[in-house]
Amino acid sequence: MTQPQLAHQTEYGRMYARSLSGVPEVPSITTVISQQNTDLSGWVGHMAATAVIEDPRLSQAVGSKPQLKTVARQASNAAERYRDEAAARGDRVHNYAEQVGLHALGKPHQMAQMRALLAEHGEGAYADRFDEWWDLYDVRPLATEITVWNGTIGYAGTLDLVASIGGRTCIIDYKTKGTTRDGRVKPLDAKVVMQLVAGLKAEESLVDPVAGTWEPWKYGDAPLLLGVAVGQTEVVAHQANPEVLPDHWRKFWSLRQVWGYSQAADGAGPALRPIGPPPTSSVPAASPVPGAQIQ
């Protein structure tokens, strides 16, 4: 489930309500983390340049300014196209992983359908590698796609999986990753640690989205937080280093304050107003633009 039932897209990012009939109240974990600025300008430029170089029309366009403009214009959104395609692929892989968990829990599932969908897109290797990892680690799911809430700090999110591995409870987040030139799955971003520790620090978990029923969070003492990189050639599980969790929790807390203060500042009214020059003793004061004057 890539769109949790209680999640809403708002002008402030993804937010969660307490029930299906409720209104959005708190930001999602990923919305909070997104307050950390990431400079992608270099990557965007690289993707655009690559799209130009690989465009089959380039050789014919050389020497023709209109044709070159067409190639450049279509290449300018290469990064957005890549992002959207990667997001759709990530949704398909996550959906399959969720269905595997539901199947293992003995619940209704669409595992075969989701595997077939991956195969249709030439992505069946993701399912193959995921199945190998699942069996190798002897994953025993406790809950899949579980929505959690922290009312003290003010955030919510949906965790991919809570499972027992080797007799230890694990909170798990899947990340669909590409493959490096040497055939290895690409590494995870360290931001996944914030995502995992925010899940660990939840206070409630959803029971019934229609009635808006919640219960105390049962897995706040999970000893293992795992980021799982799912690729076409391999699946690699990474443990969040327990020694750094307090620092990443403080960082997440700080980003949550940034999100809150940003909303307060945006709703406080105009931040700037025009002001005229100060009055003089010999020349009548005149304001070139409407607004206040310096007194």
Write the layout of secondary structure elements.
Elements lengths: L6 E4 L2 E4 L9 E2 L1 H5 L7 H14 L3 H4 L3 H11 L2 H27 L6 H10 L3 H13 L3 E11 L4 E11 L2 E9 L14 H10 L3 E5 L4 E4 L7 E7 L4 E5 L5 H22 L8 E2 L15 E2 L2
Protein name: Cytochrome
Organism: Citricoccus muralis
Kindly summarize this structure in a few lines.
It contains nine helices and twelve strands.
Molecular structure report:
By secondary structure, the protein is of the alpha+beta class. The protein has one domain. It has 9 helices and 12 strands. A hairpin with a 4-residue loop joins strand 9 (224-230) and strand 10. The chain is globular. The model has no long low-confidence stretch (mean pLDDT 88). Residues 270-295 are annotated as: Disordered.
Q: Which percent bin holds the helix content? A: 25-40%
Task: Give the oligomer, counting copies of the same chain as homo and different chains as hetero.
Answer: single chain
Task: Give the amount of beta strand, in percent.
Answer: 15-25%
Q: What composes the largest sheet?
A: 7 strands, mixed
Q: Could you report the average pLDDT, rounded to the nearest whole number?
A: 88
Biased composition (Low complexity): 282-295
Protein name: Cytochrome
Region (Disordered): 270-295
Keyword list:
3-stranded antiparallel β-sheet, 22% strand, globular, 295 residues, alpha+beta, 7-stranded mixed β-sheet, single chain, 39% helix, 9 helices
